[in-house]
Design goal:
Layout lengths: L2 H12 L14 H14 L3 E5 L4 H12 L13 H14 L2 E5 L6
Helix pairs in contact: 1-2, 3-4
C-alpha cells in the first residue's frame, strides 16, 4: 500500500523528522499511518496511538503504551504534569513515535 510514500515517511521519521499528514476525509491518511506504524514496529521502534480526548486522557494513554507508570505508590493516578514529566523522562532514553488520528479534534 503506497509503498513509495511509506518508505519516504519511515526514512524521514528515522532521521528524527516530524511529520504531519493532511488531506481530505477518506484520502487514506489513517491507513497510511497504520502501515507506517507497523513498519516502524517491525524495525523495533515503540509506537503510541491515541484518539482525540482530553489532555489527561491522551497523556495516560501515551504513558500506558510506552510503559510509563500512570499511578503513584499510593494507587492514585498521576497529575497531568507528573505524566508529562514521566513521558519526557522516558523519551530522553528511548525513541518512540506518536500517531494521533483525527488530530483536528484534539
Amino acid at each position: 500500500y503506497r509503498a513509495a510514500e511509506k518508505r519516504r515517511i519511515v526514512a524521514a521519521l528515522q532521521a528524527d523528522s516530524s511529520l504531519l499528514a493532511v488531506g481530505e476525509s477518506g484520502s487514506g491518511k489513517t491507513t497510511l499511518g497504520e502501515f507506517v506504524a507497523t513498519e516502524l514496529e517491525e524495525l523495533g521502534f515503540t509506537i503510541a496511538r491515541i484518539e482525540p480526548s482530553t489532555v489527561k486522557q491522551a497523556l495516560v494513554s501515551v504513558a500506558e503504551q510506552l510503559g510509563v507508570d500512570t499511578g503513584s505508590l499510593e494507587g492514585k493516578q498521576l497529575t497531568t504534569m507528573q505524566l508529562m514529566i514521566g513521558i519526557a523522562e522516558f523519551l530522553q532514553n528511548h525513541t518512540a513515535f506518536l500517531i494521533v488520528d483525527d488530530a483536528h479534534r484534539v
